[in-house]
Each structure stands twice: as C-alpha cells, then as structure tokens.
UniProtKB/TrEMBL annotation:
Pfam families: LRR_1 (PF00560), LRR_4 (PF12799). The keyword Repeat applies. It comes from marine sediment metagenome. Keywords: Leucine-rich repeat, Repeat. This is Leucine-rich repeat domain-containing protein.
Amino acid sequence: GLNSPFSLTNLTYLNLRDNQVSDISPLASLTNLTSLYLLFNQISDLSPLASLTNLTSLYLVGNQISDLSPLASLTNLTSLNLQKNQVSGISLLVSLTNLTWLDLQYNQISDISPLASLTNLTWLYLRNNEISDLSPLASLTKLSRLDLSSNPISDISPLVENSGLGEEDIVWLEKNNLDLSEGSEDLENIRQLKGRGVNVHY
C-alpha cells in the first residue's frame, strides 16, 4: 500500500501508473494536487479523492471503478479519463461543467443524458459502450473530437442538430448499427455533416 506522504502536502503533480495500488486513502491529504495519474492500478474506491478539489486533470484508466460519486466535488476538473473501468452510470458527472476533455471509452454506459450539461466539452470519447440515444449531444456545440464507434447507435440525427459541429471537427462512427444503404436517413445525415466540413469516419 501507500504510506502517508505527510511531507508531500505541497505536491501538485503525482503519477502512480502501474503500481498495483488499491487503497488511495493516503492521497486525501494532498489537497494541492492539480494533476493526478493513477492509470492501470486496482482502484475501486475513489472516496479519498473527494477532498482534492484543486484537481484539474485526473487519469484513472484501467482500474475497477464503478462508483463516481466522489468525483462530484471536483468541479475544477478540465480533463477526466475513466477509460477501461466498470462505469455504467455517469449522473454524478453533471457538476463537472469545466470539463473540456472526457474519456469514457470501454465501459458499460448506456445513458449519456448527464453529458448535456457539460457544454464546455471539446474532446469526448465514448467508444465501446452501450449507447444508442445521442440526443444529449445536440447541445454540446464546442465539440471538435467525438468518438462514438462500437456502440449500438442507429440514429445520428442529434449530431446534425448540433450546430457547433463543422469545419475540421472529427466524428468516429465505425461499428455501429447505422443503415448505410443508398437513400437511408443515416447516410443522408452523414452527408449533411460532411457538407459542413466535419470529417466523419464510418
């Protein structure tokens, strides 16, 4: 485990990647941290992070996380990476309105309605989840990178409704349930996006 690093309370950056860490309670006192990297450990309990309200970047890739409630207080976060965890519910992310970069790839998420309030998002990665309803994305007009590949999506009209998607933006739609036959609504929507300058991968 981690020994309490009392002398490290002024730390602003900490990287504990690939350390088989499961108990992160000693980190609770490191309230000056702005960047924390805990990739590829064995963490499931995030409660010690609730006090780290100065965090702007938090990377939790490859752990065993399902409960996101401790993150609700981290309202200064601009980058959050939860790729490859066991996340299904993301309602507790609604308060993180400063997020510009959010990675939720390889989880078990189906309902993305909480994302509608995260209007500062510019990079959003949702590859390999269980998402079919994209309507919450229509309001995220600052998006420039949107990865929706490997989901059961059959209707991409909310992306057309998103007035912010345009020149030099990129959307990934591979491995979905889209009807790409000539004359289909999905193909027409893709053509509309491409006509606005969006680089669509499908």
